[in-house]
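Weekly puzzle thread! Below is a chain. First person to post its structure in token form gets bragging rights.
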Amino acid sequence: MTDSPRPLGADLARVAVFAALIVVLGTVTVPVPGGVPITGQTLGVMLAGLVLGARRAPLAVLVVLALAAAGLPVLAGGRGGLGVFLGPTAGYMLGWIAGSVVIGLIAHHGRFTWWRAGIGTVLGGILVIYLFGIPVQSLVTGVPFGPTVLSSLVFLPGDLLKAVLAVLLAVALRRAYPRAFPTRARTVAHAG
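Winning reply:
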């Protein structure tokens, strides 16, 4: 059984909804010494990767980053403007793009399952984002790389909790509303 392609308007609406979700989750912040707060925005990025897939999820992230670059207060703590792309969080924000792609690639490679979603979320939503974020944070703050890695471990428990929450929400959404997911995933699920 194959599905007809989804209209462009439906895809754009989904991208816009997840961009808005990422922005709203930015209102959930916990300040941490070092200039990089714990936020709910990575949960939004994880959910975008799981639900929208590798092609559409980075578009939602790019919408948020474009709005931030235009000066709108869409990032954690109501931040926006070009200056945020020169600060300690710049690498993490770039990591959101790559991370959402990795999440989508892993979660939607074959049949969508909770374990595939979990692996994708941990690798893309945590590891990839850290690989972009930690070196830039070290460079911008002037703190050597090793101590920056160690200080970043404070984020790991919260990020693991966000990964679990993202997988639980995505699996529940997949069961309740499979049309929200990419067509290929729906086709594979119908075949299995």
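Puzzle host: Confirmed. Bonus trivia for everyone else. Helices lie at 8-25, 41-69, 90-107, 114-141, 145-152, 156-176, 183-191.
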